[in-house]
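Figure 3 (text version): structure tokens given as input.
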């Protein structure tokens, strides 16, 4: 995971899923060489997907005082977008949702690689 805010893409890097798709389609047409079949070799490669709800810093002494029921205050507000990482690289932002009693995440922004 990213250790600092410097690792997180700025808002100028944010694009919608539709914009990303359009860019990909335009590149495919221009090169004439890419297709979905080209990616088939990596379809079964496992990746680690992480959703970061928030972060905080605290001294070890406070950490050692924690017990069952302790609350850790994070740097995010309720309803604020969460960061979605694939293999420690931010790829999207989204919102937490509840699906059949389980937590999930809906992607609301795709972060353009850069």
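Below: residues designed for each position.
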């Amino acid at each position: 995971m990213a250790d600092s805010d410097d690792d997180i893409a700025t808002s100028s890097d944010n694009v919608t899923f539709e914009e990303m798709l359009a860019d990909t389609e335009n590149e495919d047409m221009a090169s004439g060489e890419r297709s979905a079949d080209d990616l088939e070799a990596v379809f079964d490669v496992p990746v680690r997907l992480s959703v970061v709800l928030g972060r905080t810093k605290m001294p070890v002494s406070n950490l050692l005082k924690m017990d069952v029921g302790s609350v850790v205050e994070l740097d995010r507000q309720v309803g604020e977008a969460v960061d979605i990482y694939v293999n420690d690289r931010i790829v999207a932002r989204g919102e937490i949702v509840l699906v059949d009693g389980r937590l999930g995440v809906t992607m609301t922004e795709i972060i353009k690689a850069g």
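DSSP finds two helices and five strands in the chain.
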